[in-house]
Amino acid sequence: MKRKKEEATMSEPKTKYDRQLRIWGELGQAALEEASICLLNCGPTGSEALKNLVLGGVGSFTVVDGSKVELGDLGNNFMVDDERSVGQSKAKSVCAFLQELNDSVKATFIEENPDTLISTNPFFFSQFTLVIATQLVEDSMVKLDRICREANVMLVFARSYGLSGFVRVSVKEHTVIDSKPDHFLDDLRLNNPWPELKSFVETIDLNVSDPVAHKHIPYVVILVKVADEWTRSHSVQDDIYGLWMRITTKKLSKQLSKFLLRVESALRFNNDTCAEPNSNSSDFWVMVAALKEFVSNEGDGEAPLEGSIPDMTSSTELSATASLHCCFSTDTIYQSKAEADFLVMEKRVKNILKKIGRDLSSISKPTIKSFCKNARKLKVCRYRMVEDEFSNPCVTEIQKCLADEDYRWQCLHGVCPFHMNTKASNFERLLFYGSSYAYIVYCGSGAMGFYVLLRAVDRFTANYNKFPGQFDGGMDEDISRLKTTALSLLADLGCNGSVLPDDLINEMCRFGASELHVVAAFIGGIASQEVIKLVTKQFVPMLGTYIFNGIDHKSQLLTL
């Protein structure tokens, strides 16, 4: 009975996280379960982001928020229970709710204003794997970015503002082993087959009279044979079309022919990033150093073999023994080569670890094996400091985005057939003859307009101690002030003479810094997605500032 209970306990995580394990695997899940997350501000945006991570099985989280639950929170934050929580600590209420979603996640909260914590206790953040900073103004963003970079803590900013919002990743350097590209060629090593593969290919006769038998010859064998024939009769400079012609005459499918045409070398090294490793080098760069040695020696110019090949069809029409022999032999040859390459890489990694004075077991076998399998898919992402982006953005990119903005007329109540192509800069009420319908029409803006105004509202707040449109009354004055602030910001960005549509400025004031739950849930979802990419070191995080335009239901990634 005791043994059954232990087995049930061990299998529980795999059952609980079954679907996501199929996406990022056990290594990714282990990284997630070891991660410690800090959330700054637990309004709807932050709560939605953290909820996704708690359900995913993050190791622990700490919520930092000094505010109390208000009646308005009951309408836009589903992590706040009911009216009984009004007046209580928001951090405590959200923390308790999230803990109920997954009791295997450790949860704590701190009742303190995040802006105050950033200014008075910067060392607080060094204990975390990653910080999710939501609803921060520009000044606090700059300070926190400096703090997290110095402590090597990953940082994700997220903010929802009315019908708009943004997400931005900020890390010194992020390395990705398993980038999971949408389209990638299998590593069949057609251009440079190793001796065992050559020997196996030579045992297969393509000149069989039975079309069914020919159909079930592993296509790797056909490709290697044809590639060998072609290279012996052509120089490197010859057009690949000749090889394609040979393939088609060998009864190869059209799809496979196109596949071969796309074969190319994917491994390239940047000498600047492959510097001599030292005791402070990350596991990634230690393995890259080992990879560079491998390519120059045992690899003969190639990365370690991945070891997997696409599935091949089989048929009962063909001799079962012959079919199984071909397929099994091909798989075994590729797997054996991949295992041999892994053992060489493991030895080189350990030699480097010994050389730099690190524990030989500090990089695990599964990590090295994953590195070898994905050696052709490695990615390195480097992010600008937030302060650099704010003070010295790419002016040409800003001007280009502003010039490409599409200010279109759209109808709030019905279709406006006679004015769909009309361009204007402010609201207008139209009454069509012969119709009783009144159409309220507004102008939409592109991502750059929202980017500028999201920064302008922070300047507005610094000057007037409130967000534009936050309180009843004085809306016209706030609109005028925000417009002046936005024009000043555009001038500081090097875009003198650029203007933003009045209706967009009006809308930003009408938002009143509100967090609409539907927008907060979307922004929070994007933020949590980027957190998982960063923590698992799988997939490639967004490079730039992601802007969401809820008015036009569009989004864009700005690289400034």
Automatic annotation (TrEMBL):
GO terms for molecular function: NEDD8 activating enzyme activity; nucleotide binding. Coiled coil: none annotated. One of its GO terms (biological process) is protein neddylation. Residues 17-538 form the THIF-type NAD/FAD binding fold domain. Pathway: Protein modification; protein neddylation. GO terms for cellular component: cytoplasm; nucleus. Pfam families: ThiF. The keyword Nucleotide-binding applies. It is found in: Nucleus. The chain crosses the membrane at residues 430-454. Keywords: Membrane, Nucleotide-binding, Nucleus, Transmembrane, Transmembrane helix, Ubl conjugation pathway. The keyword Transmembrane applies. Regulatory subunit of the dimeric E1 enzyme. E1 activates RUB1/NEDD8 by first adenylating its C-terminal glycine residue with ATP, thereafter linking this residue to the side chain of the catalytic cysteine, yielding a RUB1-ECR1 thioester and free AMP. E1 finally transfers RUB1 to the catalytic cysteine of RCE1. Belongs to the ubiquitin-activating E1 family. ULA1 subfamily. This is NEDD8-activating enzyme E1 regulatory subunit. It comes from Brassica oleracea var. oleracea.
